[in-house]
Amino acid sequence: MEQLVTRQQFNDWMVPVYAPADFIPVHGAGSWLWDQAGKDYVDFAGGIAVNALGHRHPQILQALIEQANKVWHLGNGYTNEPVLHLAKKLIDATFADKAFFCNSGAEANEAALKLARLVGHSKQPDQKNEIIAFNNAFHGRTLFTVSAGGQPKYSQDFAPLPQAITHLPFNDLAAVAQHISARTCAVIVEPIQGEGGVVPADPAFLQGLRELCDQHDAVLIFDEVQTGVGRTGELYAYQAYGVVPDILTTAKALGGGFPIGAMLTIDRLASHFQPGTHGTTYGGNPLATAVAGKVLDLINTPQVLQGVTLRHQWFIDRLNKINDQYQVFSEIRGKGLLLGAVMAARFAGQAKQLNQLAAQEGLIALIAGPDVLRFAPSLIIPETDVEEGLNRLERAVQRLVR
Asked: Does 130 belong to an annotated binding site?
C-alpha cells in the first residue's frame, strides 16, 4: 500500500512551476471535492474551465471504461473510430471542414499559428508572416504561444522569442486598422480574455477584425480554449457574436477532464498541411476522443446550453446581493459560466487573498490577475450547490472586509 503523501513533498519532489494550495483533493463528485482530511469544497474552478460536467460524470466515466477495454493508443500511422466520430461531430456543429487533434490548448494554438504562417508563406515567402495579437492575451506556454500571448511576465525570460508578432490593445479596432497590412498573415484573438481578467470582446471589435482580415488576406484565429464547449451558453462563443473565424482552437472543456485539444479550420487552409508538416504522438488517441465525443454529445443540447444562461443569472443575482452589502467588487463581468468579479479600488491586488479565504471556507475558485476573482464551474452545477458555494464566498468576503 502506498504511503500517504503530503503537500510538503510537492516542494521536495516537483519542479517549482506551481504553488498549489495547502490541501490535496483526493475525491470528486459532481460539483464537490474532498481533501485528504475529508473536508468538502464546492468547486467553482472546474479545473480552470475543464470539468465542464463536474467530477466523475457517470456517462463520461462509462465512455472511458468502454474504450479502455478496446484500444488505448495506436500512433498516427493509423486512424481510429472515436477520432473520426469526434471530428464529424465538431464539423457538423461548427463552421469547420477539418479537425486536427492534439493534447492541450497550447498545442492547438501552436498548430493554428504554424498553419497561418504556412499559408502566409505560400502567398508571399518571407514577407507575409506578421501575427497580430493583443495585450493581456493568453494562448499557452510553448515558446510560440507564450510569445503570441500579450503578457510579458510569461515570455520575457525566454528571449530571444519568435519574431514578427505585434501586440495591440484589446477591443481597440482603430489600432488594428492602423497597423494591419499586406505583411499580416494572421490575427489571433480570444472572444473573452480569460487569464487576462475575464474581459469580453466588443461585438464591433470582432466584426471589424473579420472585415480587416478579409481586406488584407489574413487568417482570423479565434482562441476558444477557455470559452469553447458551452462555457458561454453557446457551443462556441463565435456563434453568439455572429463572426466566423478561419481557424478555431478548442481544448479544456472538450475532454471534460481528459487531456485533449483541437484545431478546427476550413478546407482552403487545411490543405496547406500535408503529411510531415505537423503532428503529435498522442493527439487524437482513442481514449481522449472517445471521452470528448461523449462530452460533446452531453453538452451540445438545448437543455445544457440554455441552462448555462440560467446559471449565469443565479451567479449574477447573488454576487450583486453580496456586493450590495460589502462593496468588495467594482464590476461583475463575463458571459455564461466564465465570470470575473473585479476587486473594488480599496481591495486592489487582493483577489488572491480573497481566493485563499474562500478555500478556507470550503470554496474552490480562481483568479485572473491580481484584481479579478474568476469562476468557471460545471455547466450543470445544481442551484443548491451555487447557493452553498456563494454562502461560503460571502463568509470569505466578510473576513476580507474585517
From this structure: no
